[in-house]
Amino acid sequence: MGLTVFAYLFPLASLGFAILNSALALPFSWRVSAFETFLLVGSCFAAVHHAEGVSARIRQPFGTLVLTLSVTVIEVSVLVAMMLNGENNPTIAREAVLSTVMFVCTGIVGACLLLGALRHYEQDVRQQGVNGYLSVIIAISVLCLLLPGETFAGRTGATNMLQIGFVMVGTVVLYGAFLFMQTVRHRDDFLPEERDEAGEAPQHSLLVHVPLLLCCLAGIVALSSGVAAGVEEGLDRLGLRDPDAVVGAAVVAMLLLPETITAIRAARNNELQRSINTALGSALATIGLTMPAMVLVSELVGRPLTLGIDPEDRVQLLLVLVLSIVSFGTGRTNMLNGLVHLVLFAIYVMTIFIP
């Protein structure tokens, strides 16, 4: 009951405070920024709650798609606010996208596989559907994060917008093709096994969940600039060697927390396919939509981005992509698969702070 109440309060409080802050033009302060961060995180949870309510009312995999697209809108708004706050942060987009792929494919997937296996020993997924996720994730991860640093322009430190624009268009085409396969042509490959869910019907209609979901997203977008200013100023005072990497990871960890809880809960309930749809869907939506959106915004506001990632990140990205293929290669997962992913996640977090 408490979660339901907060799911109604946070959207209204976030949007209301954002309007009040804009009307009064409150100066920046740590207290205001901390309160805005509190409202933003609460609104993220509320957005996931209402997205799940919408998901329960419409067919799968459209329901999972609503959830992942909602999180993508949230992430883009926060990252754009950080890019526009103060001086240009040319690496913030690539660090956030890299962090999303690494957090999802190591941290969230590892936790789901391990905790699900602890209760159910082995779990099954629809291999064809998972292969669809991984094939597109691998393709656009390499195109967006590795290729830009290997072209002639990338090696010389110059930015060739024709190359980047062509890659971004290809990325959107791949993501659109995946959505067509997931929602129309091969829907069954992404659906979980039929289960008896009598008595689990949603309590409210789309007329309740859709407006509140939109209210959540509007409040988050409105609060993003204040949260961005507070996070960046706080991390700058720590004297980090790679502050953009930490900022990107912090944003991703904050925004993916609701989806992480949803995915882990599904894995513990022996709904691993739904868990993987949520986890890999968020990673795919991020690199398929967030990166092109950030490139477009950067071009419009005249703040160039650096897309090619550092050598240690290349090694870890390629390692986790290969590991993901192996982990889901048989269609059955166990505790060892989850443990390997979590170890790689811990090492990635270490390299964020000690590059």
Summary, kept brief:
With 355 residues, this protein is mainly α.
CATH topology heading: A middle domain of Talin 1
Strand percentage lies at under 5%
In angstroms, what is the radius of gyration?
Answer: 20 Å
Low-confidence stretches: 196-203
**How would you classify the helix and strand content by structural class?**
mainly alpha
For this structure, what is the CATH class?
Mainly Alpha
Largest sheet: 2 strands, antiparallel
Instruction: Give me the strand/helix succession.
Output: HHHHEHHHHHHHEH
Total domain units? 1
Distance between the termini: 44 Å
Strand order of the largest sheet: 1-2
CATH architecture: Up-down Bundle
What is the number of beta strands?
2
Q: Into which percent range does the helicity of residues fall? A: over 70%
**Global outline:** globular
Keywords: Membrane, Transmembrane, Transmembrane helix
Transmembrane segments: 28-50, 62-84, 96-118, 130-149, 161-184, 205-225, 245-264, 276-295, 315-331, 338-354
Protein name: Sodium/calcium exchanger membrane protein
Membrane topology: Multi-pass membrane protein
